[in-house]
Design a protein that fits this description.
Helix content: 40-55%
Structural class: alpha/beta
Largest sheet: 7 strands, mixed
Bound molecules: pyridoxal-5'-phosphate
Distance between the termini: 24 Å
Number of domains: 2
Order of helices and strands: EHHEHEHHEHEHEHHEEHHHEEHEEH
CATH topology of the largest domain: Aspartate Aminotransferase, domain 2
Number of strands: 12
Length: about 325
């Protein structure tokens, strides 16, 4: 039985073309700065996203951590969404390893942070307070796309208040494809951006942090400190380059699949949130464990969350999603 895994877009296998690109990649020791494929990926992506420099790292968690630590010193503070990955799902790394205090704010229904609330949360220059240094946004945020107008407004607010602006762009390209714009239209508003290669783009490992020369030099030092310096990492960077060159436009397919799945489940009477990109959220409530077990018997792998997230990706076809809809219909009818 072929398994249909909808837990995340991180579960994809490298495509044949990607494996070939990995096998062909020229390699060197990247801690010495001598891996030509890593160097190419870093300069290629930095240039395309409008930054001076970039740094290849093993994971999105590390990329965000280094970004936050390069912006903020001990005793500084960053403003972030309650639901943001950096705040909620990264083990409190910024606080634990960077001594950076988070100032979380509720995310609005569209995934954004209310900018008036952001302004209200910026602390005065007073020795009683942590120093507010940074605003961190996420796009896409649980599958939702922040508008370009919102990003421009966030840029204005941070500039007027002397804050840096970081983007957790784990799914930057999903946002760009959905908006129908070059990714640079999004990244132009930020001082730093973390891009994941191993989510919808389909690479097995790796993220890239982009920023100014000075910022990336600081992040490079921090990467070594936290053990993220890799040696012949071009093997992995080659997969990322391949993904960026060949597997961006196809994200539209994942979005179309997610829209179809959302629509079909809605028609079955399930409570489905609006679908923007490759994520479908459904309120399952107390039956989440039961649904997970029911689907597992049919080769469908789900998480067991009352607010269930299902993610489409390059290893899920439209025909497989029909099976998922059938399973939900059978489950709903029980
Ligand atoms: C929005 C977002 N940011 C960051 C990450 C962290 O990426 P990684 O799992 O590579 O550490 C994830 C992982 O799922 C994510 O969804």
């Amino acid at each position: 039985m072929t398994v249909i895994d909808l837990r995340s877009d991180t579960v994809t296998q490298p495509t044949a073309g990607m494996r070939e690109a990995m096998a062909r990649a020229p390699l060197g020791d990247d801690v010495y700065g001598e891996d030509p494929t890593v160097n190419h990926l870093e300069s290629w992506l930095a240039e395309r996203l409008g930054f001076a420099a970039a740094l290849f790292v093993p994971s999105g968690t590390m990329s965000n951590l280094l970004g936050l630590m390069a912006h903020c010193d001990r005793g500084d503070e960053y403003i972030v969404g309650q639901q943001a990955h950096t705040y909620k799902y990264e083990g409190g790394g910024a606080a634990v390893l960077g001594s950076i205090q988070p100032q979380p704010l509720d995310n609005q229904a569209d995934g954004s942070l209310d900018l008036e609330q952001v302004i209200g949360a910026i602390k005065a220059d007073d020795f009683h307070f942590a120093r507010t240094r940074l605003l961190a946004l996420e796009n896409t945020m649980q599958g939702k796309v922040l508008s370009l107008d919102y990003l421009a407004a966030a840029r204005r607010v941070t500039r007027e208040n002397g804050l840096g602006l970081h983007l957790d762009g784990a799914r930057l390209y999903n946002a760009a494809v959905r908006l129908g714009v070059d990714a640079r239209e999004i990244t132009q508003h930020f001082d730093s951006v973390s891009v994941c290669l191993s989510k919808g783009l389909g690479a097995p490992v790796g993220s890239v942090l982009c920023g100014s020369d000075e910022f990336i030099a600081k992040a490079r030092r921090l990467r070594k400190m936290v053990g993220g310096g890799m040696r012949q990492a071009g093997l992995l960077a080659a997969a990322g380059l391949y993904a960026l060159e060949h597997q961006v436009e196809r994200l539209a397919e994942d979005h179309a699949h997610a829209a179809l799945l959302g629509k079909a489940l809605g028609e079955l009477g399930f409570d489905v949130e609006p679908v923007h990109t490759n994520m479908v959220y459904v309120q399952i409530g107390k039956r989440a464990e039961q649904l997970k077990a029911f689907c597992a018997e049919r080769g469908i792998v789900l998480s067991a969350a009352p607010r269930l997230r299902m993610v489409t990706h390059l290893d899920v076809s439209a025909a497989q999603l029909e099976k998922v809809v059938t399973a939900f219909a059978e489950f709903g009818a029980r």
